[in-house]
């Protein structure tokens, strides 16, 4: 559906679209169809226009609103369109309406006639949905119009619409453009018998996660056809005119009208693709009804994104992603150690550096959207770090120590939600029933929220599921707790679940946020507890009681022995669906595991697809035995922005402070030869160092 405003001579220049990119996330994207992107006659403007001073007001189902500016959009690979801000749709608070206003330039344009004309700088506001609901659907869109000066008629606000007109100038984060973009616009000719279809230069949004994301191409001239009749070809080069090596073909999942003969064609990025730049073309039909695109839309395929990269547990380690992948490694733990943090490049050039801190640091987490690191001390100190520089020290509201099997702490850990720019500090609270709680920190304002006092002990390692607006907190009292978040990232309500089981004490959380599989390590056992958040049911609490939740669940017992049992656990965010786990307080063993690639339905019980155990990490380059660290667990995982592979990282604490990082290629370990009849890697025939499955990086 789309909006039109009563005005003299409106000229369409593009559209804003609500695009559901996964089961838990959606974006407000802007297609700029002017200049080289023009799709005449529907979008005829021959002059390239640029958007500025944008103001996007989004209303949610709980009545709250959020305003996004131009800095919240990212320049598309076409250099003109805008990939929009991401919102969570996997929880109970959903976007119901949106209003976009702003300016364009220049204001003297060729409307496709060859004659210049003047337009107002302000385009007509675009409105989607209704503030009273229901939730916005995929494909809700509004055409963006410009007008001759003095001809715009803007309707008065009503109870059904919330309009905010006004703008603020923001800086624009720019994404690297594809070097081959010019080739797109030329496009080879298609077969003469086929109905020609013209595509916009880039998909909307212009990037997506392999095997996870849905994206769209804007097409003009597509004949009436069912989605299944549209074959979408994604290839390393433009496949117009014939197949090319490395291409993948998938049917469209939906077709959404825009205006005139222009429509959106939606499809999911196939799991078989590798990370890289691809070109999308369309074809279908037969005989006189055959059609094919005459050019291609560019699409950047990734293996993760900033929302998914928030899906990590609190840990002693943080990994900041970029061309240089950097680990923030505390020198301390709950029981002691030294002050300070080591900044260690694990991909890219550079040497480790040290950051001095007043207190002993136990945990760090990195914001995947901004790169800012947040670290917590055993005291109330919270350290904010940009790059190699400590920029601020804040104080949490902890009032006492929270106590775990591995020690006590006032600040115990931190996890960052990149979608809302919020850090969550686990804290000791003397007036809480569990002696513990969670406090939110707004990283845009450095303002703390009121701590949420938990009925059940907070997890040693909480996790963020940004798309579902949840925090995962399985605690040592064996309640798998969930905390619901608002659309702005505020802490709302605690839910308990004591039915999953596991045979030990829950020690750490982890989650595959793409499929909704939640995990918990079980200390002193070889068990992993699993639950499916995609099929979860929630029962609100009554009176002063907390709520509860249930879902299909399972407990998996692994081969192998882990020091203090399975303690630390992490899933590499993105489309690889792989994770890593290990023990603590010594030991050299770890396991990698493969999770299902698609969400389950119909009560299906979650399970591991496969796992592989390495009983002994090799000695570190200094000849010492590798020794797993202490609480709050010296393990994390990440998906490389450089090669798209999933890696685990474990810190070695043989000397009492971290000395080495083991960087582990999860897929190589999974594919290594195993001892017959077991899940144990046969290290007598497979050298994990020589194969590149494990490499060591010095911390100092």
3D architecture notes:
- Helices cover 2% and strands 43% of the residues.
- It is mainly beta and 700 residues long.
- The protein has two domains: 1-175, no CATH class; 306-698, 7 Propeller (Methylamine Dehydrogenase, Chain H).
- Strands 13, 14, 15, 16, 17, 18, 19, 20, 21 and 22 form a ten-stranded mixed sheet that branches. A six-stranded mixed sheet has the order 38-39-40-41-46-45, with no helix packed on it.
- The relative contact order is 0.09.
Write the topology of this structure.
Layout: E1 11-20, E2 25-32, E3 50-60, E4 65-69, E5 74-75, E6 82-83, E7 86-88, E8 95-105, E9 108-109, E10 117-118, E11 126-129, E12 141-146, H1 181-186, E13 195-199, E14 202-209, E15 214-220, E16 231-235, E17 248-251, E18 254-259, E19 262-268, E20 276-284, E21 291-293, E22 297-302, H2 306-309, E23 318-320, E24 325-333, E25 336-347, E26 353-355, E27 361-366, E28 373-377, E29 381-386, E30 389-395, E31 402-404, E32 407-409, E33 411-417, E34 422-428, E35 436-442, E36 447-448, E37 452-453, E38 463-465, E39 470-474, E40 480-485, E41 491-496, E42 505-512, E43 517-523, E44 527-532, E45 537-539, E46 547-550, E47 553-557, E48 568-571, E49 578-582, E50 590-594, E51 610-614, E52 635-639, E53 646-652, E54 660-665, H3 666-670, E55 694-698
Parallel strand pairs: 13-21, 14-22, 41-46
Antiparallel strand pairs: 1-2, 1-12, 2-7, 3-4, 3-8, 5-6, 8-11, 9-10, 13-15, 15-19, 16-17, 16-20, 18-19, 20-21, 20-22, 23-24, 24-25, 25-26, 27-28, 28-29, 29-30, 31-32, 33-34, 34-35, 35-36, 35-37, 38-39, 39-40, 40-41, 42-43, 43-44, 44-47, 45-46, 48-49, 49-50, 50-51, 52-53, 53-54, 54-55
């Amino acid at each position: 559906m789309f909006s039109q405003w009563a005005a003299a001579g409106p000229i369409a220049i593009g559209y804003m679209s609500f695009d559901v990119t996964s089961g838990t996330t959606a974006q407000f994207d802007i297609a700029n169809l002017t200049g080289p992107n023009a799709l005449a006659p529907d979008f005829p403007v021959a002059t390239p226009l640029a958007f500025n001073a944008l103001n996007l007001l989004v209303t949610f189902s709980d009545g709250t609103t959020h305003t996004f500016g131009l800095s919240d959009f990212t320049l598309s690979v076409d250099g003109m369109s805008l990939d929009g801000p991401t919102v969570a749709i996997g929880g109970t608070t959903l976007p119901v309406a949106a209003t976009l206003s702003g300016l364009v330039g220049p204001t003297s344009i060729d409307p496709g006639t060859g004659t210049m004309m003047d337009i107002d700088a302000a385009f007509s506001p675009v409105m989607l949905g209704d503030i009273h609901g229901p939730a916005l659907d995929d494909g809700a869109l509004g055409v963006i119009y410009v007008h001759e000066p003095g001809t715009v008629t803007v309707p008065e606000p009503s109870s059904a619409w919330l309009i905010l007109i006004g703008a603020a100038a923001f800086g624009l984060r720019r994404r690297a453009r594809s070097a081959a973009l010019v080739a797109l616009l030329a496009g080879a000719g298609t077969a003469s018998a086929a109905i020609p279809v013209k595509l916009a230069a880039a998909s909307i949004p212009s990037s997506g996660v392999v095997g996870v994301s849905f994206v769209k191409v804007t097409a003009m001239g597509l004949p009436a056809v069912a989605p299944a009749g549209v074959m979408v070809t994604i290839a390393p080069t433009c496949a117009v005119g014939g197949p090319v090596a490395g291409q993948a073909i998938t049917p469209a999942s939906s077709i959404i009208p825009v205006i005139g003969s222009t429509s959106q064609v939606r499809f999911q990025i196939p799991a078989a693709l590798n990370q890289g730049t691809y070109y999308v073309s369309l074809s279908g039909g037969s005989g006189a009804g055959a059609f094919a695109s005459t050019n291609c839309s560019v699409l950047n395929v990734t293996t993760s994104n900033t929302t998914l990269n928030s899906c990590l547990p609190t840990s002693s380690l943080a990994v900041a992603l970029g061309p240089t992948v950097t680990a923030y490694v505390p020198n301390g733990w709950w029981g002691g150690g030294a002050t300070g943090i080591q900044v260690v490049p694990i991909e890219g050039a550079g040497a480790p550096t040290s950051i001095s801190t007043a207190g002993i640091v136990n945990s760090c987490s990195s914001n995947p959207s901004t790169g800012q690191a947040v670290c917590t001390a055993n005291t109330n100190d919270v350290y904010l770090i940009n790059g190699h520089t400590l920029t601020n020290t804040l104080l949490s509201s902890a009032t006492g120590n929270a106590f775990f099997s591995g020690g006590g702490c006032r600040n115990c850990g931190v996890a960052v939600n990149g979608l809302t720019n919020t850090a969550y500090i686990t804290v000791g609270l003397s007036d809480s029933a569990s002696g513990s709680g969670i406090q939110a920190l707004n990283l845009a304002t450095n303002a703390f929220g009121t701590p949420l006092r938990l009925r059940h002990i907070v997890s040693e390692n909480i996790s963020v599921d940004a798309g579902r607006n949840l925090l995962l907190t399985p605690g040592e009292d064996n309640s798998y707790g969930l905390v619901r978040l608002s659309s702005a990232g505020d802490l709302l309500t605690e839910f308990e679940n004591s039915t999953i089981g596991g045979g030990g004490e829950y020690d750490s959380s982890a989650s595959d946020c793409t499929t909704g599989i939640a995990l918990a390590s079980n200390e002193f056992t070889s068990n992993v507890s699993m639950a499916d958040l995609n099929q979860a049911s929630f029962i609100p609490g009554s009176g002063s009681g907390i709520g509860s939740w249930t879902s299909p669940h399972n407990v998996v017992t692994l081969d192998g022995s882990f020091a203090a049992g399975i303690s630390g656990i992490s899933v590499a965010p993105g489309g690889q669906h792989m994770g890593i786990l290990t023990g603590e307080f010594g030991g050299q063993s770890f396991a990698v595991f493969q999770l299902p690639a698609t969400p389950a339905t119909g009560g299906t019980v979650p399970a591991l697809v496969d796992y592989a155990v390495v009983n002994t990490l090799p000695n570190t380059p200094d000849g010492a035995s590798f020794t797993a660290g202490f609480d709050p667990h010296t393990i994390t995982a990440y998906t490389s922005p450089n090669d798209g592979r999933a890696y685990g990282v474990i810190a070695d604490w043989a000397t009492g402070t971290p000395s080495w990082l083991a960087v582990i290629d999860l897929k190589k370990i999974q594919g290594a030869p195993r001892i017959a009849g077991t899940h144990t890697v046969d290290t007598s025939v497979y050298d994990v160092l020589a194969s590149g499955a494990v490499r060591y990086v010095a911390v100092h």
